[in-house]
Amino acid sequence: MPLRVVMTKSLDLPDEANLWDVSDVPTMVVTQRGARKSFQKILASKGVEVVEFDILNPRDVMEYFHDRGYLSIMWECGGRLAASAISDGVIHKVYAFLAPKIIGGTNAQSPVGELGMVEMTQAFDLLDVCYEQIGPDMLMSGSLQPIPDPTPIIPSENETLAIDPTVNPYEPSIIFFYKTWDPYGAFSNFSAHSIKMPEENGGNVTWSSVEHYYQASKFMGVSDSGAKDCIGKIISAKSPEEAAKVGRSMQRLHPNLVRADWEDVKIDVMYSGLRCKFSSYPYLKSMLLATSGSVLVEASPHDLFWGGGREGEGLNYLGRLLMRLRSEFLGESSTSSESTCLAL
Known about the structure:
Layout: E1 4-8, E2 27-32, H1 37-45, E3 49-53, H2 58-68, H3 79-87, E4 93-98, E5 126-134, E6 137-144, H4 157-163, E7 173-177, E8 195-198, E9 204-207, H5 210-217, H6 225-235, H7 240-253, H8 262-280, H9 282-289, E10 294-298, H10 317-343
Parallel strand pairs: 1-2, 2-3, 7-10
Antiparallel strand pairs: 4-6, 5-6, 8-9
Helix pairs in contact: 5-6, 5-7, 5-8, 6-7, 8-9, 8-10
């Protein structure tokens, strides 16, 4: 007997719906813990099972279903949830209907939301693709290649202690972050946290994200109007992903506009942006300090410099910078505590 499942963080659902009629087919609602308790009672009175998760995400939901003995799940969702499910590696086969119609618009919805890809070479390929015409529509189906969990490169004991003395190099706890909806997604340089960085003339510039600042820094100090145009386009980018796309394409198409020392300073630029972000938002700083003793891994399967890569081949520089920042914050906190004790 099939089970209907509704996945919603907010439980913003209608009081009356055919879904709540469980006389023939059962319905389950999975949601974030604490969401609309009064509505949960209404659903329970109708015979609808409600399951709460501390952090609602596709991977935990699928693990829960597996424990319940549900071995075949069909996802029918919007672009945002589809992207989250694909990123979590819980989608194994895709069925896509293509209709002979054209729609569009600046704000048109995409069948798959943001996956962090900026190049066609990063696209996920379908395997064993089949095509079937159903009326005027075409059904395309194919299997997704497995997306393995990236295994971080654990530094040697001396390297680990140099980055963060609190980490146990032999039995490290590993915290992965990548997408902004991940539990630790706020650690990403793509998170929507604005930062205010100083200018050479003594003023300050507000950047929409660390990624905006990082991409624009590639062209700073270059005496060419084209470089200034690049910075302007990055500043006006509506999202960190768009800023990355602009910065990377300009760097590839116009390498002469990139500052000569970029490869030598890009790590320092990223670190200064991260330090500003975590210093500006106390809750982010507390979140970072709470990971003390854990290895942080940027779990991008595509970026082999800042991320861990698909199979741990990445250098994970973003994770390393965050561990370095965490260690500095812990040192500052310790110094402050000692000063307070002396003052008392």
